[in-house]
């Protein structure tokens, strides 16, 4: 390895160290309360060094979301690569994969959801490359859902009269709403209504798929 390659490698390691530290800070304190000073202290770098690699707190947050998106996509890819399911089953399974992601990687899940819900303003100080990569990764997931709907229509098990893009957006929205509600109200649902999360998810997925079945 030459000198330039070694320097690039060291730069990438340091950059990832900063993102690792930022995850700890953002996930424990929340994005709004976290500061670049917190990130620098956790990473054990000077604040000036942090700004050599990232020009804002928002940019680092995008990098965290990118990690989350890549992880979710890898989980979807694993299912798709081994699946011979029909289109409507794939739509349902995609929801199950997403729920699994929310359970096992809740910090990434909510990092992505906070951005998608428009709770954070990333309109300033963000390089187009970071923003566009997030959009591109999000579109990969959206395309999977659209492809599954199209497959189901070809197989004549999903209604032909649906608008694929509108249906995909609404299915995504309903699913996120269900996950969020079940997480926030889990104790109440279990103690008062004696229903488990898994049981309600089964009912929810059945209801959603019935709306698009032919």
TrEMBL record:
Domain HTH tetR-type: start-end pairs: 12-72
Entry keywords, A to Z: DNA-binding, Transcription, Transcription regulation
Coiled coil: none
Gene Ontology terms for molecular function: DNA binding
Keyword Repressor: no
SUPFAM superfamilies: Homeodomain-like, Tetracyclin repressor-like, C-terminal domain
InterPro entries linked to this entry: Homeodomain-like_sf, HTH-type_TetR-like_transc_reg, HTH_TetR, Tet_transcr_reg_TetR-rel_C_sf
Pfam family, any one: TetR_N
Keyword Coiled coil appears in the UniProt entry: no
DNA-binding region: 35-54
Example of a GO biological process term: negative regulation of DNA-templated transcription
Alphabetized PROSITE patterns for the sequence: HTH_TETR_2
Protein name: TetR/AcrR family transcriptional regulator
